[in-house]
Amino acid sequence: MRRSADGFSVIELTVALALTLIVAGTVAAIVGPARSVFDSQPEAIDVQQRLRVGVEALTRDLIGAGAGSPVGGRSGPLAEVVPPVLPFRRGAGRSDPPDTFRSDAITIISVPATAVQTTLAADFDVGATALTVMPTVGCGEGVTLCGVVPGMTVLVSEIGGAFDLFDVTAVDDAASQLTVTPASGASAYPTGVPVVEARVRTYYLKNDSVTHTAQLMRSDSAATGDAPVLDHVAALTFDYLSASGTPIAASELADGPWLPNAAAASRWDADLLRIRAIGVTLRIEAALAAFRGPAGALFRHGGVAPSARLWVPDQEMRFVVSPRNLGASR
Amino acid sequence: MTGRFRRDRGAALVMVIMALALMTSLSAALLLSATSEVLMAANFTSQRAALYAADAILERAMIDVAAAPDWSTLITGTTPASFVDGPASGGRTLADGTIVDLGETLNMAGCHKRSACTDTELDAVTADRPWGASNPRWQLYAYGHLHDLLPDVPNAVWYGVAMVAANPGGLDDVITIRAEAYGPRHAHAVVEAVFARDGRDSDYNDGTPRLISWREVR
């Protein structure tokens, strides 16, 4: 086998060189796009995950809107006396004016299954800061207001449409008295009116004018403050449907007739009780501008992606939730 | 073969092993990422489906509750629903081999443990059972595979259990229904609903049992 030590022939060298060039060229052609995919796919997954989290959070809260008081006070569906879904921010803390309609905000009210379901034991006057209530059910010996703790939100409502939300700041168990933060424009309530723990949750879009980004925010009570749920939300829109499935115009939900009356500071539009389903449109965008292309159909906010291979388009989902407690058939 | 070439022998094997290790680790990372995403999506889907399955068994139980003339016999367990798949005890096997034990389901609802609950445990004040001695004493009411309930629905692989209890506030003609659904990937969802019968003080009564509250138990 001496020939193998004589070196390579020109033909052998040419074939080897051609093969090497073909392989190298193929690898080079694949590496570029592959690298783009490796760079952009984690961002695409993140967009999907955030969309999933947003859909889950909104669906879970919306589906239970309007759960009423099952035990004490005046048990019954919440929608008999209170609009469970409001197209604006309403709570014991900061509230929008009553004749507001915001397509990017929603407040959801329900009564949780707790022992804090009772009635007023004494009249509550305008400007008062204490609610005197009847003992609650299921408390241990020597305890009359089991379950009531500072920071809790309680709902006081009356047939006829007046309702107010109060943050409890102190509990005097012996006197069956709750010290509350006076709600702006709160009504007066007579003895016997239901007082129940309320779960009041507002979702809204918070725009940052400096970074031109938006967050989906959640607000539970004045005590807990607002918390971000999702970053880089490109759009959030709520719309409302009646029992027949037809859309309810925004103007219909903020033009009266008003309950309990047009002069009440905490009035609300009676058409809110027509809401049977809520449509939600949620659009999420890539967090980094390096993965966004020019503003247009694919991108609500333009980015600086140098190549279409790096684009991670916005993901948008529209879904409709029919809160079980607002079901017309039940 | 000179001495220098002899020293190089075996280098190819090392290089091949190193290249193989690199490619294997890259493949494993890619596979793990892809698999975990698929599993997350599947679990998410199962969990959402479990909620709707629980709502389905709740609706089915409500049909029998609405037709029952005396709810007190439901609460005592004297009158079971028409949708039952055997005695109110023992295990039921799901399509994936998971066993749902009706007795354990009842105990978990009453005191968060698999064995039988004592009266003290049932009366204990907890976050989800805050009424002490008035806490619900659940009674099995309707239970069965959802494919028996929904034969036309493909992949109705869920098992549903509905329980009933008296109202903690002692209100007459008010009944609480707790519905649970079990499914693939250990998916489990619980909903509770309170219904009131006609005749109670309300402007909204229309002659049929009406829903007072529906909530998902998390």
Q: How are the strands of the biggest sheet of chain A laid out side by side? A: 3-8-5-6-7-4
Name the strands of the widest sheet of chain B in spatial order: 3-4-5-6-7
Distance between the termini of chain A: 94 Å
- For the secondary structure, the number of strands of chain A is 17
In sequence order, what are the helices and strands of chain B, one letter per element?
HHHEEHHEHEEEE
Shape of chain B: elongated
The biggest sheet of chain B amounts to: 5 strands, antiparallel
Report on this structure.
The complex is a heterodimer of chains A (330) and B (218). The mean pLDDT of chain A is 86. With 330 residues, chain A is an alpha+beta fold. Chain A has one helix spanning 10-63; strands at residues 85-86, 105-110, 117-119, 130-132, 153-157, 163-172, 177-180, 194-197, 199-208, 213-219, 226-230, 233-241, 247-248, 258-259, 268-269, 277-284, 315-321. Chain A contains 1 helix and 17 strands. Among the domains of chain A are: 44-65 and 201-321, no CATH class; 116-197, Elongation Factor Tu (Ef-tu), domain 3 (Beta Barrel), CATH 2.40.30. In chain A, the strands form 4 sheets. A 6-stranded antiparallel sheet of chain A has the order 3-8-5-6-7-4, with no helix packed on it. Chain B has 218 residues and is an alpha+beta fold. Chain B has helices spanning 3-8, 11-67, 72-75, 102-111, 119-123, 146-149; strands spanning 91-93, 99-101, 139-145, 159-166, 174-182, 188-196, 210-217. In chain B, the strands form 2 sheets. Chain B has a 5-stranded antiparallel sheet with strand order 3-4-5-6-7. A two-stranded antiparallel ribbon of chain B has the order 1-2. In chain B, a hairpin with a 7-residue loop joins β4 and β5. Chain B starts with a helix and ends with a strand. The A-B interface holds A 45, 52, 56, 60, 63-64, 67-72, 74-78, 80, 110-115, 117, 137-140, 146-147, 159, 324-325, 327, 330 and B 37, 44, 55, 125, 128, 130-135, 167-171, 174, 176, 192-194, 196, 200-204, 210-216.
